[in-house]
Amino acid sequence: MGRASTIQNAFNAGELSSLMLGRQDVKKYASGLFVCYNAMPYTQGGWTRRPGTAFLHQTKYNNRESRVLPFQYSVTQTYILEFGHQYIRFFTDHGILTRTAQNITGITRASVGVVTYSGSDTYANGDRVHISGIVGMTQLNNREVVVANVNTGANTFEIQDTDGNNINTTAYDAWVSGGTVAEIFEVATAFDETDLDDVRITQSADTLFILHPDFPPQKLVRNSALSWTLSNIAFLDGPYDTTNTTSTTLTPGAATGTGVTLTASAVTGINNDTGFQSTDVGRFIRLREGSTWGYVLITGFTSTTVVTVTVVNTLTNTNAKTAWRMGVWSDTTGYPSCGTFFDDRLFLAGASLYPQRLDGSKTSAYTSFAPTDTSGAVAADNAVAFTLNADDVNAIRWMAPNEKGLLVGTSRGEWLVRASSLNEAITPTNISAKPCTRHGSEPVAPVSAGKAVLFVQRAGRKVRELVYVFEVDGFKAPDITLLAEHITRPSVTQIAYQEQPQATVWGVRSDGAMLGMTYERDQDVVAWHRHELGGTSDSTGTAIPIVESVAAVPAPDASRDELYMVVKRYVNGGTKRYVEYLTKIWETEDAQEDAFYVDCGWTTVGAGTTITGLWHLEGETVGAYIDGTRHVDITITNGTATFDRSGTVKTIGYFYNSDGQTMPLDGGAQDGSAQGKAKRISRVGFWLVDTLGLTFGPDEDNLSEILVRQWGADYGTATSLFTGVVRERFEGDYDKLGQIYWRASGPFPANVLAVMPQFQVSDDS
């Protein structure tokens, strides 16, 4: 019988796969965990609870999916865009963007509440508005409602909830004074719910370029805080397919003007010999007479040999022309599915009929893809066109700028596109593409982290790190899920990168779980962790809330990055979809009463015993936290939580567990390894920082409290967070694994820096 005392003082290898249980020889084993759930390893090595998610706003439609995408004008002017079924909404400074608010002058208590407002008549039936600041009828505060039965003469409208039900205000408190109503600002789009997964974006200053393989490229321009415009990009010229080599001629009815007839002598060479199509409307055609090029835009379809055009650039004459080039993008050929900026050009790629082709705009002229000037001369700043030369179809899935060139991810491999000569800019005559690695990508937008580009491999089961390696003078893409191969099952559908304060890659898994990876390559930290939000997404209460989308932007005060998400929940008997954001990671200087370890949570600061405006939790029994102490659970009624005592800082939301479990212990034995031998942990020590509410034991079903405070104070005066070492008896029996499980629950922070077990090994077992 041997005795051993060991220490694990780092957990920054994250959660490891069960396939690693016998791999004590692997360096990462010593800093790995078998369970890292709703918790995050610090880059420095410690384990901390995942902070909670704060409720921001409901999405427009409860019964339709939506996505969040980032818009960052600067580190202090950032937006989260909610892309939904035929609309975009905007969030900034932890609020939804609204038009100018109008004062409320009265609200009735009736079977259908009626709002009276002052100011101009701007509302129409069906408008979504946000109500806040009411004194008296506080049940309507912080609530989105639908306008119905507008009476413009009386400046009144009835209110409905977002499912179209009339809001009965008879049980609400009487309106006393104040309050404002503001129409929620949104921009209409052509994207249906089913189109959203394929939306890709790239940004230049105040312009967001929006790409989808089935829609013409669009741009969303921020003119001011309340002025955004969405329009199809008006390309000036190009890009084009190769010049016609058949005998087919195109004859224009006029050299200038609109409504000009363009007649083809045959269908040969046009759309794979099928001739013009109605889906060619909006497509460019370049025509040459002698050495001079002009170009037209198709505006109408007559037949497979006749279309109507607008002459954009004057044609030399009306002669039949054999030198012509069809535009690359159209409803016939598809549109770019991805894009990025590189070398001061906008690169677009991935149209369905040209899956391996990428096009770069003219330098500094992002809407012009002119391959030459009108004389046919090719200048260095003219547009670039290149098709990847592969043995099979390598459909381009993403592009990302890199100091070594333009990285391109395809369905079958990863490529580096750059000038043929080193340290030169890409030009129409100086461009090359070479395969880097041959893994292939899912159609998931990658993220750039440091010098690496992280992408989801084809099949969605692996995340790879594409990075230049000096020793081989090339790129490698190691699998960074290798030690945690289970973490991405069934598949990863989105990823986002939060750089500050702990660099973390977040992912959405197809089953609704959220994944995280603490990532600091310079410190060799790649640590995966799993997250399931508090609450439920079905009527049985057994299904986890479904995270459907994630995006990250700098916080309003620029002190950190914030992760935003769309979450599908089951609340008050129905499906809801909310926009929530991950609150800040706990730091030692934070005030205890500001701890935020609830999901879909809400905090108010001010004296009193109630929180109003909690309609997103209506009918739910949720956890509560007041002035640094745990409160009994509260059921939300009419959007209101009532506490049993007064306090200043009140937080409410769904509690969740944060769990950690070590890998099997291996402290050695008299005749070699302790692996596979019966062992019994007798005592265990924990190095803790700012911790309350931690339990531990041999597994999640047998946990004991760590006695670091007077538990009689659970519902009274706050007990200070504990920092130091605790050493406790371990209530476990002999087994052949020897693992330590711990759990933090409730509203308190917990930070575990080291685990120090003392155990006996039976060499005869």
Describe the structure.
This protein has 765 residues and is mainly β. Strands 1, 4, 5, 54, 57 and 59 form a 6-stranded antiparallel sheet that branches. The protein has a 6-stranded mixed sheet with strand order 2-3-53-58-55-56, with no helix packed on it. Strand 45 (561-571) and strand 46 (574-582) form a beta hairpin. The protein starts with a strand and ends with a strand.
Distance between the termini: 10 Å
Count of helical stretches: 0
Q: Mind telling me the C-alpha Rg? A: 31 Å
Q: Please estimate the helix content.
A: under 10%
Mean pLDDT reading: 94
Estimated share of beta-strand residues = over 45%
Number-wise, the strands total: 59
Detail the poorly predicted runs. Answer: none
Structural class: mainly beta
Give the biggest sheet.
6 strands, antiparallel
**CA-based shape:** flat
Summarize this entry quickly:
With 765 residues, this protein is mainly beta. Helix content is 0%, strand content 46%.
Give the topology, please.
Blueprint: E1 2-5, E2 14-15, E3 32-37, E4 39-41, E5 47-49, E6 53-58, E7 67-74, E8 77-84, E9 87-92, E10 95-96, E11 102-107, E12 114-117, E13 128-132, E14 143-151, E15 156-160, E16 180-183, E17 186-188, E18 200-204, E19 207-212, E20 215-224, E21 227-232, E22 250-252, E23 260-264, E24 284-289, E25 292-303, E26 306-313, E27 323-326, E28 338-342, E29 345-351, E30 354-360, E31 384-387, E32 396-402, E33 405-410, E34 414-418, E35 432-437, E36 447-449, E37 452-456, E38 463-469, E39 474-476, E40 492-498, E41 504-509, E42 514-520, E43 525-531, E44 546-554, E45 561-571, E46 574-582, E47 599-605, E48 610-611, E49 621-626, E50 629-635, E51 641-642, E52 649-654, E53 658-662, E54 679-691, E55 694-699, E56 702-705, E57 722-729, E58 741-744, E59 751-761
Parallel strand pairs: 2-3
Antiparallel strand pairs: 1-59, 3-53, 4-5, 5-59, 6-46, 7-8, 8-9, 9-10, 9-17, 11-12, 11-16, 12-15, 13-14, 13-16, 14-15, 18-19, 19-20, 20-21, 22-23, 23-26, 24-25, 24-27, 25-26, 28-29, 29-30, 30-31, 32-33, 33-34, 34-35, 36-37, 37-38, 38-39, 40-41, 41-42, 42-43, 44-45, 45-46, 47-52, 48-51, 49-50, ...
